[in-house]
Each structure stands twice: as C-alpha cells, then as structure tokens.
Write a structure and sequence with these properties.
It is built from 4 helices and 15 strands. It is α+β, with helices and mostly antiparallel strands. Residues 1-69 have low confidence and may be disordered.
C-alpha cells in the first residue's frame, strides 16, 4: 500500500476507529486542502460518510451527528505546549517541509456568522460559501508566505443539523516560517475560539527529512529514530504498523501535553517513515497525539 494515498494513522482498539479526512476542495481553482480526523469511542454517537472522486484527491464534507471530545491536554499555556511539541519534532526531523496545527470543535448558531467572525479576527478574506452534499461550507484561506516567514491559515466552518456548526482553523508553515509567529497565531486562535463559545481541541503534525541518514529502509530508519528520540523523551511503543515502504508506531509519552485514548491505551505521539519512490531521503512524519496529514 502506498503510504501517501492512505490514511495517515492506524489507531487500533475494539470499537475505536479513526478516519482521516482529506480535502474539502476549492472546486473553482482545483485546490484541495487536508481535512481533519474524527474519532469514535465505544459509546460514540457520530457517523461519518465518505465520498471519493476518481483521479483527484478525495473531496469530502463531514456530516456530524454529535461530537465526542477525545483529546485531552495538560493545563498549561498553549504556547508552552506548542513549543514543547515543536522541540520534540525537531529532534527527529532536520528539514521541515510542512508543519500543520489543526484546531477543531463544534458550536451552536449560524455557521456563516461564525466563519465571518473567525476570518475577520484572523485577518483573512470574507469566507466563500461552497455547497457540498447538501450542507453549506464557509471557507477562507491565506497561504504560507515563505518570503515574509508568515504562517498560512485556513478557516472552514461546516453547517450541521439543529442550528449547529463544526469549525476547523488550520495553521500551517514550513522551514521558512517564523516559529514565534506560529506560536503567537496559535494562542490567538485558542483565545478566539474560547471567546466565541466553542469547545475546541488541537493537534499538530510535522513532516520533513533527516540528514546523515544511514538506512534507507523505512523500518530500520524508524528504529534508529526511536533510539535517538528515547534519549530526549520517555516513550513506550503501543501500536506498530508496517507495509511495503512504510513503518509507523504510536507511543505513550506522558510528559507530552496532548493525548488521545485508543482502546485501553493513551497515545501521545505517532511517528512514521515512508519511502518515496527512488528518492534518496525518506519522508518522516510525526504527529501529536497522532498524525493527521498524509504520509
């Protein structure tokens, strides 16, 4: 299985599952953006429908029927939490190609009004309404500005039933993005969501490559990364997955600020190494508490 075309996480455990949601697209421009993941525990009451279109990235919209909060985080300033996670990611990735922070949560009220509020406070353009599978999606985006070192931002607010909405605010960057700017925006989004009455959670994924790689085999490189990482973070592997060209492992690491329950385990971090065709460098992805972008 090609890791780039499948879900970026495999979380085991009984009635618990994870669905990786990729791309609500700006159809007019042919532009697709990564979607988020939704989780369900053994008492979960939400169902997610999936739609796929051939030849292009999946275009999906989430229909939510109730939301179960599954993320847990320590009672620390969000900037401090983010700084710790970035430091941990830097210990395994030398060249960052992509950094994505996803805030997501539900609210009551008018979806368009919430989208306008979020976009205006974040300095984005007026949201555009897109009709998908019978639901309105309000979307506004600012791409990463490498020259200025500015983070990219995306607001997606999906209209749900019973006068509700589900909102996603995504912050993105790369090796050229100023880390302090990302932390500032991260705290700004946190406060904005709280002030607007939303109960939101967040996750982060970082992707890139490592220098001085001695192993091209994904599983062997993952083992080497684990050895290096274990000197900086107290980790215990919980779930492992391998296929042709991809190796992934989820960890319990109590000192990290974000966690999610998988079966009887709490996960704090997921690490994956993927061989990309004939390229010299394998692609490394790390997620907190799990990976929510493509390998």
């Amino acid at each position: 299985m090609n890791g780039k075309l499948r879900s970026a996480m495999q979380v085991a455990g009984g009635a618990f599952f994870a669905v990786f949601r990729r791309s609500i697209a700006n159809v007019g421009k042919g532009h697709a953006v990564d979607r988020f993941i939704e989780y369900k525990n053994e008492r979960g009451i939400q169902m997610l429908n999936r739609w796929m279109t051939a030849g292009i990235l999946a275009m999906a919209i989430i229909i939510l029927i109730g939301v179960t909060q599954v993320y847990a985080e320590k009672n620390e300033p969000k900037a401090a939490q983010l700084e710790q996670l970035i430091y941990t990611a830097d210990s395994v990735i030398d060249n960052v190609d992509r950094l994505v922070i996803k805030w997501q949560g539900e609210g009551r009220g008018d979806a368009q009004s919430q989208a306008v509020l979020l976009a205006s406070h974040l300095g984005l353009e007026q949201p555009v309404r897109v009709r998908q599978t019978g639901h309105d999606v309000y979307r506004s985006e600012m791409v990463v500005n490498e020259a200025a070192g500015e983070a990219g931002m995306l607001v997606n607010v999906v209209e749900t039933e019973d006068n509700g909405y589900y909102a996603i605010v995504q912050i993105s960057g790369d090796a050229h993005t100023d880390r302090k700017a990302i932390m500032t925006v991260h705290e700004q989004v946190d406060q904005l969501l709280v002030d607007s009455g939303m109960k939101a959670s967040w996750n982060m994924s970082v992707q890139g490559t490592a220098v001085n790689v001695t192993e091209h085999d994904a599983s062997q490189q993952l083992e080497l990364i684990e050895e290096q990482l274990s000197t900086k973070v107290d980790i215990a592997s919980v779930e492992r997955y391998t296929d042709a060209g991809t190796a992934s492992v989820s960890y319990k690491a109590a000192e990290l600020p974000l966690s999610i329950k998988s079966g009887s385990h709490m996960l704090n971090m997921q690490l994956a190494v993927h061989q990309v065709g004939n390229e010299v460098d394998n692609r490394i992805t790390v997620g907190f508490p799990v990976i929510t972008i493509e390998y």
